[in-house]
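Late entry, written up from scratch paper. The run itself happened at the end of the previous shift, but nothing got recorded in the book at the time, so transcribing now.
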Amino acid sequence: TRPEARWTTTSGSAKRSRSCVRAVTGVPDEDSDECVDDSEEPNVCESKVSTSAQALDAADLLRRFFGAHDDGEDGLEIAAAAEKAIIRLKKTRQTSIMDFFAAK
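Output as recorded:
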């Protein structure tokens, strides 16, 4: 049986806020102020952007998780692709328009 949600009697805005927290963390959090419903679109969540170090730690965690399982080859490939994408994003930097016109 599925446990009954504790916030079924709250307003629609509170339900959307809590569903946003649940979607990101997997755990309902009734005291979270991270989700804001100031827009017309449902389930808009403003949260802090993770740093590249945090993302790399998450990719490492995935690699260790899938490495511990016999059928984890697909997961290892996904973790490696994620790590590669994170490193690529980390290395990119915003350039100035003057860099485009500079003599090379």
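Confidence is low (pLDDT under 50) at residues 1-11.
(Scratch paper discarded after transcription.)
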